[in-house]
Amino acid sequence: MIASQWIQTASHWGVYEVETRDGIARSARPIAWDADPSPIIQALPAVVQGPLRVSQPFVRRGYLRHGPGRTSAERGADAYVPIEWDQAMRLVAEELLRVRETHGNAAIYGGSYGWASAGRLHHSPSLLKRFLGGFGGYVDKLGNHSFGAALAIMPYVVGSNDITGMASDWRAICEHTRLFVCFGGIHSKNAQIESGGTGAHSSVSWMRQARRAGVKFVNISPSGADLSAEFEAEWIPIRPNTDTAFMLGLAHTLIATGHADMDFLARYCTGYEAWRAYLLGETDGIVKDAAWAAQICDVDASVIRSLCERMTAQRTMLAMSWSIQRADHGEQPCWALVGLAAVLGQIGLPGGGFGLGYGAVNGIGAPRLENIPRPRIPLGRNAVTAHVPVARVTDMLLNPGKTIQYNGEPLTYPDIKLIYSCGGNPFHHNAEMRRVVESWQRPDTIIVHEPFWTPAAKHADIVLPATTTMERNDILAAELDHHWIAMKKVIDPVGEARNDLEIFGELAERLGFGTQFTEKRSEMVWLRHMYDVAVEEARPLGATPPGFNEFWETGIFRFPEPTAPFTYLGSYRADPVGNRLKTASGKIELWSGTIAGFGYADCPPHPAWIEPFEWLGSGQALRRPLHLLSNQPVARLHSQLDHSPVSRAAKIKEREPLHISPSDARTRAIGDGDLVRVFNDRGAFLASAVLDPNLRAGVIQIATGAWYDPMVPGDGASLDKHGNPNTVTRDKGTSQLAQCPTAQTALVEVERWSGATPAVTAFRVPLG
Fold first, then answer.
1. Which residue numbers are catalytic?
2. Distance (Å, rounded) from C-alpha 546 to C-alpha 532?
3. pLDDT (tens digit, 9 = 90+) per residue, 72-116?
4. Domains plus CATH for the chain?
């Protein structure tokens, strides 16, 4: 027997060490310097060697027998046949060539979306883009599901799309902020994760320091649990999707009481007079005062006025979670937040102004140097200019040739014949599952790289087994972190799994551009090259990373933290002429002439309240009286590791927990732990009820990421047995500006499930 050894690697959940013995991963433990590690790392050894691994290449049975396109309607219901790697690579290469020669590269969709896995080399969507770019190009996606509406609107408002950088340093908050107003809360569970990984978890500890320093938190959210009880937050249980109205009511109150900072508005902003006219009702006859906002938000007007008084009396940070903008007209709360902060006049002051995404991931607001270089593999050129907003991919597949408006321009959907997907789960992040399933039955061929039998793998034609982070070497260097971490190979690849670099390297060789793709570099040669380039880029920062061999031996390099706390827009406030914003005016824009020129009724040229397509203040609530919110899970990342023991232990009766207020449960004769059906005209899913006094009445909540598991495989209209909320969300863009997801806008009804309890089959291997 070989003695145990501990080997360092990393993931989106942080840096950890894996105990191996006899070539098997036995257990995991967090790295010693991480004071607040995520328990999810305990799930990793079990799943890496678990029964749901894709053990070798597989082809869907109907596709293997009949070829591309002839049995596409059977996706999701068909069984899979194991084949050899040589046959799999030949099938992929031949189909890529056929589609390119018959339809052109614009018929290939390579806009793979998802967090994939940590590491700068083996980031599968990046390697896919490098490969398809070398093949002649592909249709890519634009934007993201996390904060896409903000990504679209904020360049017009503050001249930047660096959404993760729109947050002041926690050190400035601890020292200067006295009131921290959170729209959407700051949920501690989200601090477990970081896209690309994190060297150490610090977000929750910074919040604790802020509370000890005397910062008072206000949680404006339908859920009191969106700010942990340890922070003693005041909870204002707002009606979902009405944050914009609440902000407008606050802004009007500041103006009406003479507390608007006119000097700030004159010097640093443009468009205030036009927005003021809207707030005062001069443009539409509706005064946006506290009483008006109270009716929409279902809170007392005195609550709005009292909060306004406290904001004017002390240094206030206005924060908004990313989840708020994932709703109909999601651009508006982003813009209204800036407008409210501008009227208050504290933008650019230490501990004041506004911030986006505090607590969304671990690194938001953490002290770090700006522009730390990251080791990277170049993506190369994409010769195809056609693209699609990430939340309109389903619509694109269903409606080739359709023209929509997007960010001021017409956009015509291409006709996709081949989807190549790596590192994501389209059956998790896309809305309205009946349309998603139908759309995935349209292309001739779907190819995926997957370590596990996920819903994406079960709806593909060719499934190639990919490695996990434990089965390869890489470097963690996340955008919001100040560490470089050596991610060392822990075990040999399971079964016949290969890493994406190898798979694409062989395909590129078969297709005639192997050297262009690989540059004749192996995994470790690539890592050394990427590291050395990043070291040279780091020298102007005054940083002195060691040579690659020393880095790989020690396993870590820490960049120094800046001595002075960062204040967002602080340099602009200090010198608005020398540090002009990259907006049309060079100032903060409260009214945008550019957006006015687009003529979008669903995105006016200033922050505005526009009724969502369905909400609790509408007549639709008579039929569907509950608003469904879907949040980040506590026991996994999105849908990653849903099959793990950690995630499955958090389920009730094998279903995802659905939180419901005790009063709403009583009305429906629902008890704690009961199996329930959540439904609307778009679909239905089963879940297990949890009676939650921290939810306002009329609101239910479920975590995202339960693997899609329809009662009838391949039928998108079928009942989901497992708790996937996207069976009831609507496939609609936020507006013509951003065309981003609206998953947080969904009215439903809930009833106690009285039928036979169907078996969950999400974690079964689909072999015939």
1. 113, 115
2. 10
3. 999 999 999 999 999 999 999 999 999 999 999 999 999 999 899
4. 148-366+569-598 (3.40.228.10), 619-752 (2.40.40.20)
